[in-house]
Structure to design on (201 residues):
């Protein structure tokens, strides 16, 4: 969804923690932004979760045993549907009850200030849950360009303000099967991010 307009090459020192955070955000962006692909499944099944509170094993088990066509139908029922899906994964909806309201306008201003813009292939508003995870992944993986304070401010206003509720709805959704596990995973990760940004650095 997002690209940087920075032209000068940068070679930031990215810590293991920052790489891990960026990876999780990018994965969630892929899972929420489109039906699950074979590439995403291959990536998930190769992850060594190690010592973490994130429910990696449950996610890996579900994806390993899933039929990708069935997952595509589930994704469609949840987020697209006939006219609309069961859930509307947009920040404006969760913060105001309506599509494309002030939170989206504020987000677009902040993205512009950060030098980020949508690609031509993007068809969803920028406050889509998958798009926001993609932006957070980009920022977490480029700490030289996007400081801890910059990430914290963006997360607090545009992600942490509503995405826990979205993931809870995903867990409870009538059409959720595999995506119930995605919801549990996302909810746990957002809670960890809130703890991370609450710490002084």
């Amino acid at each position: 969804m997002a690209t940087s307009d920075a032209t000068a090459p940068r070679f930031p020192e990215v810590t293991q923690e920052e790489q891990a955070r960026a990876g999780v955000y990018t994965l969630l962006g892929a899972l929420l932004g489109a039906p699950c692909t074979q590439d995403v499944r291959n990536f998930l099944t190769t992850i060594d979760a190690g010592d973490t509170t994130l429910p990696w094993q449950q996610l890996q088990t579900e994806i390993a045993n899933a039929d990708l066509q069935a997952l595509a139908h589930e994704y469609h029922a949840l987020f697209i549907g006939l006219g609309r899906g069961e859930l509307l994964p947009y920040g404006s909806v969760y913060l105001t009850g309506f599509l494309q309201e002030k939170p989206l306008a504020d987000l677009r201003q902040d993205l512009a200030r950060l030098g980020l813009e949508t690609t031509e292939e993007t068809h969803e508003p920028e406050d889509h849950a998958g798009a926001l995870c993609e932006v957070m992944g980009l920022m977490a993986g480029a700490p030289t360009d996007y400081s801890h304070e910059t990430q914290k401010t963006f997360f607090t206003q545009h992600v942490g303000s509503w995405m826990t509720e979205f993931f809870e709805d995903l867990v409870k959704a009538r059409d959720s099967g595999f995506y119930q596990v995605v919801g549990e995973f996302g909810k746990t990760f957002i809670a960890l991010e809130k703890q991370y940004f609450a710490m002084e650095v």
